[in-house]
Every structure is written in structure tokens, then in C-alpha cells.
């Protein structure tokens, strides 16, 4: 195993597939011991194999994050086996592709319990351990939709917006207490994950992500970077930047634009597969991996992510370039 981090412990919720699965592998590559939390045993076993394949240790803990008692029990078990948790990543989510009035109250509550309260309970469980030790990092996997909501995903947009508000509150509490615990939020663009295959839907066709699609490994690198650097928030992909800044500057225009484009933009001309199952209440059988069905169009890099995670180098190069230009201009006018 790599000694880069000395085998430190990270907990990942929603680790069996998608961004969580890719993030587990990313931490494993850096030598972390990775505790994998999710409901589906098949996906968890596959994630464990992936982490072990890159030379790291992995632990499976079957957990429904909507149940605070299960999260607390998972954390207790992990620390008994491996010692202190140093990073906790709240990634688990459950979305519904549907017009709001077509979502039953029970389904809306379930999506909120997983996506919002699951992160709240994870944060609480992590803080109960990290605050007394005065160290640790909590990473909330957010979304551009926490800033700029879109139609047909009201439960998910509401949950991510709530999580952003909750996180800001906790951050201020930690600062007030002069705590060494750091909390950050990573806001993602659209990613090629299995959620579009198993998210509950009433649309009658296979759903798709809006706009430019990134591979989950891009998100994984962002989450790892956020866990190992002191950044308040990290935006991933130009679409996330555009959505976040745009809603601050031209919110009304975006309301109208998304009304025109975002409904059809999430539809495809593909019928739902016969017997399609969703994972709102129970996991879908099988190991679904990190990637969804959009490999042919998803991109594996993000220039924006590289730029935002290399601000120091960019500033240094800019200063050097300005110094060279300034020196050249001074010599030119002196000799003129």
C-alpha cells in the first residue's frame, strides 16, 4: 500500500456505484483505507474489489443512510476496526425524474431522507468523532442544482439546496468554535453514472443528463482534492460555474430558458426497458459500476477543474509573465 497518507481512513456513502464508486478507487490509489457504505451488497463487493485492485484496503458496511442509527453503527464499527475516521464523504443520493405533482408524498420524503437527511446524519456522526479530536474533513457531494434548480427533479434540487444551507450553517459553527474540523462542498455538473438507469421516473422514457456530460473519475479527483485541501467550495466543470454564477446575475432569464429547454433536454426517444427497477426504496440487484450508458459522449477531463485546483501555479506564472513584460518594456523605452 502507498504510504502517502499512512493508510488513513475515509468513509464514503453511496460507494457502490457512480461517483461514489469512482471516488473510492481514487482514495485507494492514494493509499487510504476506504470504508464503503451503501445498501446494495453486489455493488459494494464490486467496489471492494476495485479498491483492493489498486492496492488499498476496503471495508464493506451495508447501510441505509436515511436511518441515523445505521450510520452511527457503521461509524462505530469502522473506528473499532481501523481507528479514527479522518475524512467523511456524504455522497449517497436518490433522485426522481418527474413533474412535481406526479411524485407521491411518500416518494418525495424518501428521496429527501436519503439525499438531504442522509448527509445531515452523516455529518452529525462524523462531527461527534472529529470535534473532540479537533481534526478531520467532511466533504458534501453537492451539485450545480444546489444553486440553479431545473424542472423534473424537484426532490433532488430541493435536497441539494437544503444541504448547501445546512453546510454553511455548520461551517460557521465550526469557525466560531475555532475547530480544526473542515467542512467543504463539491458542486458537480452532469456525470455519466447509473442513476439514469435506476432513478425512479414517471416520464415514460429513459432519462438523460442535461448538457455536457463528464465521466465520474473527474468528480472523484475533485472530491479527493477537496478532502486534502482547505477550500470552502469546489465547482466541477464549466456548466457548474455557469449555472452558479448565472443564477446570481440573471435568475429570471434562466427560469425562462430552462422552462424552454430543460424538460425536453432530460428526455430521450428511448422507451423504458421492460421490467425496469428503481432504487428508491431497495437497491437494484447486480454490480452496476461507476459508469452509466453515456460513455460515447462523456468527457474524461475538465480544464476548469485543473484551473481551479492550480490557482497558485497560475498566479505564479502570471506574475512571472508580467515581470518579464514589464522588464522588456522598461528596457525598450530606456533605449528608445
TrEMBL record:
Domain Ketoreductase residue range list: 8-191
Keyword set includes Oxidoreductase: yes
Gene Ontology cellular component terms for the protein in this record: membrane
Pfam family, one: adh_short
Keywords: Membrane, Oxidoreductase, Transmembrane, Transmembrane helix
Superkingdom of the organism of origin: Bacteria
Spans traversing the lipid bilayer: 312-333
Database matches in Gene3D superfamilies: NAD(P)-binding Rossmann-like Domain (3.40.50.720)
SMART domains: PKS_KR
InterPro entries registered for this protein in UniProt: KR_dom, NAD(P)-bd_dom_sf, Sc_DH/Rdtase_CS, SDR_fam
GO molecular function, one term: oxidoreductase activity
Entry annotated with the keyword Transmembrane: yes
Family (UniProt): Belongs to the short-chain dehydrogenases/reductases (SDR) family.
Protein name: Short-chain dehydrogenase
Amino acid at each position: 500500500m502507498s504510504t502517502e497518507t499512512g493508510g488513513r481512513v475515509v468513509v464514503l456513502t453511496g460507494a457502490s456505484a457512480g461517483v461514489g464508486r469512482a471516488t473510492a478507487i481514487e482514495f485507494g490509489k492514494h493509499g487510504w483505507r476506504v470504508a464503503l457504505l451503501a445498501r446494495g451488497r453486489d455493488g459494494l463487493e464490486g467496489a471492494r474489489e476495485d479498491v483492493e485492485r489498486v492496492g488499498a484496503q476496503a471495508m464493506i458496511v451495508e447501510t441505509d443512510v436515511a436511518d441515523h442509527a445505521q450510520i452511527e453503527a457503521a461509524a462505530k464499527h469502522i473506528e473499532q476496526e481501523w481507528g479514527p475516521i479522518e475524512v467523511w464523504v456524504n455522497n449517497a443520493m436518490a433522485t426522481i425524474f418527474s413533474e412535481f405533482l406526479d411524485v407521491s408524498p411518500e416518494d418525495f420524503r424518501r428521496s429527501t431522507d436519503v439525499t438531504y437527511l442522509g448527509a445531515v446524519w452523516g455529518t452529525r456522526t462524523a462531527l461527534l468523532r472529529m470535534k473532540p479530536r479537533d481534526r478531520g474533513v467532511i466533504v458534501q457531494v453537492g451539485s450545480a442544482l444546489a444553486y440553479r434548480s431545473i424542472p423534473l427533479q424537484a426532490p433532488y434540487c430541493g435536497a441539494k439546496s437544503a444541504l448547501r444551507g445546512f453546510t454553511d450553517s455548520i461551517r460557521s459553527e465550526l469557525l466560531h468554535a475555532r475547530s480544526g474540523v473542515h467542512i467543504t462542498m463539491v458542486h458537480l455538473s452532469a456525470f455519466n453514472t447509473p442513476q439514469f438507469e435506476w432513478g425512479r421516473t414517471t416520464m415514460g422514457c429513459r432519462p438523460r443528463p442535461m448538457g455536457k456530460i463528464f465521466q465520474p473519475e473527474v468528480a472523484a479527483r475533485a472530491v479527493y482534492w477537496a478532502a486534502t485541501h482547505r477550500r470552502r467550495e469546489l465547482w466541477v466543470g464549466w456548466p457548474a460555474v455557469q449555472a452558479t454564477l448565472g443564477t446570481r446575475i440573471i435568475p429570471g432569464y434562466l427560469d425562462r430558458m430552462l422552462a424552454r429547454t430543460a424538460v425536453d433536454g432530460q428526455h430521450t426517444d428511448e422507451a423504458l426497458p421492460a421490467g425496469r427497477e428503481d432504487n428508491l426504496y431497495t437497491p437494484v440487484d447486480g454490480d452496476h459500476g461507476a459508469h452509466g450508458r453515456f460513455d460515447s459522449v462523456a468527457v474524461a477531463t475538465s480544464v476548469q477543474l485543473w484551473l481551479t485546483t492550480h490557482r497558485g501555479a497560475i498566479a505564479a506564472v502570471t506574475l512571472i509573465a508580467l515581470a518579464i513584460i514589464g522588464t522588456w518594456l522598461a528596457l525598450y523605452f530606456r533605449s528608445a
